[in-house]
Design a protein that fits this description.
295 residues; mainly alpha; 77% helix; globular
């Protein structure tokens, strides 16, 4: 493997691990709902991205071309993912939320045949079954049937938000696939983040200056490290790593999130959580291998 490919793979690995910290650091936010957190995280990340693109001479090349409606949708999906994911973290825990986020391939399997006219293969069906079983195992069969487990704390609401985050993530994957011939990954990220900020602008007014100042260090980490640095590492690494390989490496995100949640937050990791993790990630891995074989 050439040095540039090794470096690029390392960048994608680093980005995936950085992304895994999002839910953990969200829990350190005080007196702020998910909406304002997402807005200020993206605002700080957007500014940091603008500085990076300007310093590298790429900012002047970013402009609106075709498929503008799809770009608007990408911004809306982005808002949906972050709001639902952070809400899920609030009502469940980091481990469950990140695993439910990674049910995205399940939705891609269900939506792609309708929108992209892609056929479902035997491997696709196996991935679908693994993902569904994994969700049931992680959430808990008794919760799905009776709805009694931790119901008072909004447990099932958190689970629903986690599943929504996976759905919106799948919409991002499909929309980005549609836009890739018109816009690079970095262009999609920068423009869609601007769209998301416009959509979430009302949340800016829902927080007091004192609460913003109190949470500024954590918001700076979320914005600069995760939204900006993580994305820069991922998309620059993607230039020299096959998309299929990158999608496999990206499975480090939920694994690292669960690992660091256990170390930092003392989140319990039960055998059922680990089993569900294996099933859901195996589903994503099958999807990645399917794409690679088609390529």
């Amino acid at each position: 493997m050439e040095p540039k490919h090794i470096k690029a793979s390392a960048q994608v690995v680093a980005a995936s691990v950085i992304y895994g910290f999002a839910g953990i650091f969200f829990l350190y936010i005080k007196n702020m709902a998910a909406g304002p957190v997402v807005f200020y995280q993206l605002l700080l990340g957007f500014l940091a991205l603008a500085v990076y693109l300007a310093a590298t001479g790429q900012l002047s090349g970013i402009q609106l071309r075709g498929k503008r409606k799809a770009l608007l949708l990408l911004g809306a999906w982005h808002a949906g993912v972050m709001l639902s994911y952070y809400t899920a973290v609030n009502f469940t825990n980091v481990s469950m939320s990140v695993l439910l986020l990674y049910t995205a391939p399940l939705y891609v399997l269900l939506i792609a045949p309708v929108i992209l006219k892609e056929k479902i293969s035997t491997k696709n069906l196996a991935a679908l079954a693994l993902s569904l079983i994994g969700v049931v195992v992680v959430v808990g069969p008794e919760s799905l049937v009776s709805g009694t487990a931790e119901a008072g704390s909004g447990y099932l609401y958190g689970v629903l938000m986690g599943l929504f985050s996976g759905f919106f993530y799948a919409c991002i994957i499909l929309t980005s696939r549609y836009l890739r011939d018109e816009y690079s990954g970095m262009e999609q990220l920068f423009i869609s983040t601007g769209v998301t900020l416009v959509i979430l602008f009302p949340f800016m007014l829902q927080i007091s200056p004192s609460a913003l100042l109190e949470n500024l260090p954590v918001l700076l980490f979320l914005g600069v490290m995760i939204t900006s640095l993580g994305s820069i590492l991922y998309f620059t690494g993607l230039e020299h790593v096959k998309a299929q390989n990158a999608s496999i490496i990206s499975l480090l995100e939920p694994v690292s999130a669960i690992f660091f949640a256990y170390l930092i937050l003392n989140d319990p990791v039960s055998r059922t959580t680990l089993l569900g993790c294996v099933l859901i990630l195996a589903s994503s891995l099958l999807m990645s291998l399917e794409k690679e074989s088609k390529a």
